[in-house]
Design the sequence.
DNA sequence: CGCGCTTACGTAATCGTTTGCGCAGAAATT
DNA sequence: AATTTCTGCGCAAACGATTACGTAAGCGCG
C-alpha cells in the first residue's frame, strides 16, 4: 500500500480515519494539536483526497461540462477562456465536449452526462438542433444547465446568456446602407442556429426601415468552404443584381467572401462592402481590414459560469439573471469605407 | 429513492445486485434470458452507472487531462480538436486546463491531478517552465503523461510529439534569404519555450550557412502586444541596420510586425519580408497574405492522444513512438514575394 | 457528590459498483 | 450410480471519504 489515503494517515498517526478526515476538513470537533499533526503528515506525504470517493459520498463531482459546436473558432475559444477564469476559483474542473454541429452527438453527450459525472453544464447548441427533449430531460433531472450564444428560446427556466444579435444585425446593415450600399445581402449558415435567425431579423428590420422597396436578400450557406464559395461566386457574378454590400452572420462566411472577391478581382470596399460578426483579432490585418461586430466572448463565458455556479450552489436567480444580454461592439474598418 | 441504480434494478427484477451488474457487463456467467430482462429494464429506466462508484472501485477515471498555455490560439484549438477526435472513441472524457504561461499554475494543476482524477495527461509546457520536478513526480507515480509541441528534452521516458521546428526554422530563413533578404531578424517569445529555441537554432544555422558574415539577430519579445510593438518599432526605425526580413517564431509576433509596418508605412514585402509560424487559416487574407509555416496541429493532437491511450492500456511503446516528429508545411505567400 | 455538558475522538454505516468466492442444481463424465 | 464439471446466480467484501452517532474523560454547578 503505497497510496497515501486517509487510512494510511490514520495508521501512522494512531488515529481513527474519521478523525483524520475531520482534521483535514478543519472540523471544530478536533483538537488544535491533533489537527496540526494531521496536516503536517498530510503535507509531508502529499496527500490528495481521492475525488471519486468524495464524489460518490457527497454526490457531487466538482466538475462542469462545456459543450460547444467546435473549438477552432475564436469565439468559442474565448468563451472557454472566460469559463476557465471562474471554474478553478470555485474548485471546479472543466470537461469539454464538441458536437461538431451534430444534433445526435449533442444528444448523446447530454445523455452521457446524466449520471452525476458533472454538477452542471454549459451548452451552445449545434445548428442542427431543432428539438429540445434532451434539454428538458436535464431540467427535470434537476441538473443545472445554462445556454449561451446559440440558445433555445422556447424552453422554460433555463438561463441564457446571449448578445444583442438582432440589434447588432440592424446596426451592421444600417452601417452598410449609410456607407452607400443599395443592395445588401445577408449571408448566414444553414440550420437552426438561433443567432443566425436573430441577426437576420435585425438585417430585415434595417432593410425594411431604410430601403422598404428592396426585397431582403437572404443567402443561405453551409459549413463547407467550397460550397460557400460557389454560392458567393454565383451571387457576385450576377452583374445586374450584384449586391454592393454583404453582412455575414459568421466570420467564416466573411472569409469566404474575401476569397471569392480576390478570385473575381472585385475590390473591397469599392465594389463590395463587407461587415461580419467576428472575434478574430487579426481581422484588422485583412486586406482590407474587416469591419467587425465583436461579441464579448470572454464575458459570455464568465457570466455563464457565474450563473451556473449560482445554480449549483442552489442560490436563487434574480429575474434578470435568467436572460442576460451582453452588448457587442461594431468596429468600423476599411472593408466598409466610403468608396 | 428515485435514482436508478443497480440496487433499484435488482429489487425490481428480484435479482442480486451482482447479477445485475454482471448482466449489464455481458458476463458469460449470466443466463441469456436474465441478461435480456436486465437490459430491458435498464433501458426502460434509463439506467446510467454512477461513474464515481465505478471509478472508485476500478481505480480508473476514464478521463484524461489536457493542459495548455492558452486556448485562444488556433494551434492549441486544433490540437484539442485532434484529441477530441480520439478520446470519445475510447470512452474517455477530456478535462481542460489553462496555465496562462504560468509555471506555478502548471505545477499546481499537475499537483491537483495526482489523485486519480485522470488516467493520464497531455501537456504543452508554459514558457515560464524551466524545472521539471512536477513532471518527474508524475512519471514516478506511474501516471501516463505525454508532452506535445512545447516539450522538455531532458526528462526521460516521457513520450513527446513535436514538429520539425529546427528544420522549418532553417527553411523559413533560407526562404527569406533566397527571396533577397540580406538581414533577417528572428522574433521569438521570451521564456523557456522549447519551440522558440529549436526554431532559433534553425534560423542560426541558415544564417551561418548563407550569410556567415552576418551576426544572427535574435529579437526577444514578450506576451504583451504593446511591448512587442515597441520592440519591433525600435527595430524597424533603425534606418541603417533595419532588417529586410523577419522570421517570427509565433503568429502573434507576425501580427505585431504587421501592425508596426502599417504604422510606419513600411510595405511588405518591398521594405520587409515576413514569414511566421502560424496555423491561422485567415493568414491568406492578410495584407499582404502572410507566408506561413503551418504545423500539423490536428495530427499532433491525434497522435498525442493515441500514444497516451497506448500507455494507459499498458501497451509497450515502440522506440519510434517515444519521440514523434511530424512535418510542418511552408506556405509561400505574398509577404515574402520578390520585391 | 452526582448530574449534565462540553471536548475530543472512535465505531460503523453509507455512497454505487465491481468481483472473488460460495453454492445450489443440472449436465456430463467415468 | 457416483463423481466431476458446468451453469447461473447470490453473498459479501472491497474501493476511499464522509458523517450520524456513541463514548470516555474533564469540567462546572448546585
Sequence:
Amino acid at each position: 500500500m503505497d497510496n497515501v489515503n486517509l487510512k494510511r494517515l490514520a495508521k501512522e498517526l494512531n488515529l481513527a480515519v474519521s478523525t483524520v478526515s475531520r482534521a483535514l476538513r478543519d472540523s471544530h470537533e478536533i483538537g488544535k494539536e491533533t489537527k496540526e499533526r494531521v496536516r503536517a503528515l498530510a503535507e509531508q506525504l502529499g496527500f490528495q483526497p481521492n475525488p471519486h470517493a468524495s464524489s460518490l459520498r457527497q454526490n457531487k463531482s466538482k466538475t462542469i461540462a462545456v459543450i460547444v459546436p467546435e473549438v477552432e473558432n475564436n469565439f468559442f475559444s474565448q468563451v472557454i477562456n472566460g469559463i476557465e477564469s471562474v471554474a478553478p476559483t470555485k474548485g471546479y474542473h472543466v470537461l469539454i465536449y464538441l458536437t461538431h454541429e451534430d444534433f445526435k452527438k449533442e444528444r448523446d453527450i447530454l445523455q452521457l452526462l446524466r449520471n452525476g459525472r458533472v454538477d452542471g453544464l454549459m451548452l451552445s447548441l449545434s445548428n442542427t438542433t431543432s428539438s429540445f427533449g434532451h434539454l428538458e430531460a436535464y431540467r427535470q433531472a434537476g441538473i443545472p444547465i445554462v445556454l449561451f450564444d446559440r440558445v433555445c428560446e422556447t424552453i422554460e427556466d433555463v438561463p441564457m446568456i446571449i448578445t444583442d444579435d438582432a440589434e447588432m444585425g440592424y446596426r451592421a446593415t444600417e452601417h452598410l446602407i449609410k456607407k452607400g450600399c443599395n443592395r445588401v445581402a445577408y449571408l448566414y449558415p444553414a440550420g437552426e442556429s438561433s443567432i443566425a435567425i436573430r441577426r437576420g431579423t435585425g438585417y430585415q428590420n434595417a432593410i425594411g426601415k431604410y430601403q422598404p422597396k428592396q426585397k431582403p436578400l437572404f443567402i443561405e450557406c453551409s459549413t463547407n468552404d467550397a460550397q460557400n464559395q460557389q454560392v458567393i461566386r454565383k451571387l457576385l457574378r450576377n452583374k445586374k443584381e450584384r449586391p454592393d454590400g454583404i453582412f455575414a452572420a459568421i466570420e467564416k462566411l466573411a472569409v469566404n467572401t474575401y476569397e471569392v472577391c480576390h478570385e473575381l478581382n472585385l475590390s473591397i470596399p469599392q465594389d463590395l462592402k463587407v461587415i461580419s460578426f467576428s472575434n478574430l483579432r487579426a481581422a484588422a490585418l485583412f486586406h482590407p481590414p474587416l469591419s467587425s461586430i465583436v461579441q464579448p466572448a470572454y464575458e459570455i463565458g464568465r457570466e455563464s459560469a457565474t450563473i451556473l455556479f449560482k445554480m449549483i450552489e442552489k442560490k436563487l436567480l434574480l429575474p434578470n439573471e435568467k436572460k442576460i444580454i451582453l452588448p457587442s461592439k461594431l468596429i468600423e474598418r476599411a472593408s466598409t469605407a466610403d468608396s
Summary: Chain B is about 40% helix and 15% strand. Residues 15-19, 22, 28-31, 34, 53, 55-59 of chain B lie near DNA strand D (CB under 10 Å from a C1'). Chain B has three domains: 6-49, 61-162+297-326, 165-295+330-336.
